[in-house]
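Ticket #4471: structure output looks truncated?

Reporter: J.K.
Steps to reproduce: submitted the chain below (427 residues) through the standard prediction queue, then opened the result file.
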Amino acid sequence: MTSRTKLALAFLRTHLLHRWLNSRDRITRWQNWNLERLRRHAVAHAAFYRELGNLPFYDFPIVGKREVMNRFEAFNQLGLSAAEGWAMIERGDAPAGHDIGCSTGTSGNRGLYLISDAERFVWLGTIVAKALPISLRKPHRVAIVLPRTSRLYDAANESRVLKLLFVDLRNGLASAAEALVAFKPTVVVGPPKALRWFAENGVAIAPRRMFSSAEVLDPPDRRLIEQHFKLKLREIYMATEGLFGVSCEYGTLHLAEDVVHFEFEQIAGAPDLVTPIVTDFTRRTQITARYRMNDILRLDRKRCPCGSALQAVAEIIGRRDDAFALPNRDSSKPSVVLTPDVLRNAVLAAHPGIDDFRIRLAEENRIEVVLPVQMSRDVGEIARAEVAQACIRAGTSPEVALRYDALLPRNDIKLRRVENCLKPGIS
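Returned output as attached by the reporter:
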């Protein structure tokens, strides 16, 4: 089967599933059938699951990045170790018929992925079907703006559906802008910090669709990007572990439940926030089963106007380890946990002119609010007071300091406006 045929079949399957998975009951039946197939494959082909015996799927242990990286060879059917994987990446090599890649490592804990060539085309066909309209006359011109490339994207240029340009952010935003202008993309995918820079600097592109990816999309960024490019900014929720969601035409982020099973772990003290535990049932080379992500989501319980029965996400809040664990004013009680959205919203509530900021926990009981140097001192003091009040309402009273900086985003790492420099946040 040719690469184009594989991509076309994945594209068609995604469109057909979009029509068929029109109720929660059908989604559950589809997932249960696929989870049983994955369970049997994992027990037969991956040492970690073979050692557990013939367990039902929901008795599989929940795992995380540290455990998978410590025993990488036990989670993939090639028996490839993490050391061998890193050595291959260093050489620009990969096992025959496969691709091996890694995350950007912005959390200080880089992850590996191993994927077969066939799985690459399933991934591409799925994302194209969810993100782009069918085009029979002209291929979409898609620009991917990220700080690290992958052979996953090479699959696009092996098809007639897309012409794809990977733009390496490590070369700087000005260099990225030049590449985009020359390419004339119809679709741009990139982190909010880059899309915002293109908007603020008047980069001469006119995409028909634009997707935020790889970073948390904060309200000021969304507003500036949408106003400049005069379109609805959509999102692609994706990680080293797989494709997890794509926004529909209404801007609602829908989880990719046609290819991934989600369980949700509630965040203590925040009844509307959850952490996803994911199982990708389309991938066999490396097993991703009951894998706890580091993300915090706010789910949307309403049905989207687009009619999709796939679970909607109201907001990607941030990372679990960027929550702030602070001493409780009542020393007999456990620490108070402030999630990134609480801190972010406190600063944004201070003044409508605040469109950039940083909030950092750099000491055990000291929060630092950083605003742009051009921000007025009165507004800064209001922002500092809003953060302090948010802490008091939550039951903690840390020192809240204020300072000003240029706030220039780095090109080689993800932008995190709320950052726990001490780690961990939520255990």
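Triage note (M.O.): checked the attachment and the full token line is present. The mean pLDDT is 90.
Status: closed, working as intended.
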